[in-house]
Amino acid sequence: MMYEKAKKSVFLKIDKCIKSLNLAVKVFQDFLGDRSSSDPMTYYEAHKYFEEGKNFYQEALNEISKLIGSLPADASPGFKKWRESFLKETGITSESRELEALKSELQNDEFLIGILSPEEIDALLTKHFESQQTGKRKLSNIKARIIFDEIINLLSEAETLYIKAKEKLFQLR
Questions:
Q1: Which residues of 126-145 are buried (b: 16+ CB within 10 A; e: fewer)?
Q2: pLDDT tens for residues 76-98?
Q3: Among 6, 51, 116, 137, which residue's beta carbon has the most beta carbons within 10 A?
Q4: Is the pTM here over 0.90, yes or no?
C-alpha cells in the first residue's frame, strides 16, 4: 500500500506536469497563430499552465531524486535493500539490462506509452542507453531519464512560445 501511494505521487506529479506543459504549448500556439485569439486572457491562461507545469516539474524532480538519487553515506544495508525492492515493485526503475529487452519493457510500460509513442521511446532509449551506463548512473534509472528528457523538451518548447507570446502581448498594448 505504501508502495502504491509513493508511486502514485511521483507519477501523478509527472502526469500533471506533462499535461500542464502540453496545454501551455497548445494555448500559446493558439495565441500566437490566430488573430482572433489575440485576447490577453488567452496569454494569461497559457502562462498559468506554463507556471503550473514548471512547479510540477520541480516537485516531481525533487521526489524522483529522493527515490533514485544517491543514498546518504550512513544509510543502512537494510534501507538500501528496501529501496531497491521499493523501486522494483513500483516500476519506477527498469529491470532489463540488454537493449532489446529494455526496449520491449519500456514500450510495454503503461505510463510511458501514455506520454510517448513507441518510436519516441525507441529514439530516447537509443540516445541514452550508452550514457546511462557511465559514471554513477544506473541503467535501471533510464525510465526516469526518458520521462524527464521529454519534460525538458516540453519545457523548452513552452519557454520559447512564452517569450514569443509575451512579445505579442506587449505589441497589443
A1: eebbeebeeeeeebbbbbbb
A2: 888 888 888 888 888 889 989 89
A3: 116
A4: no
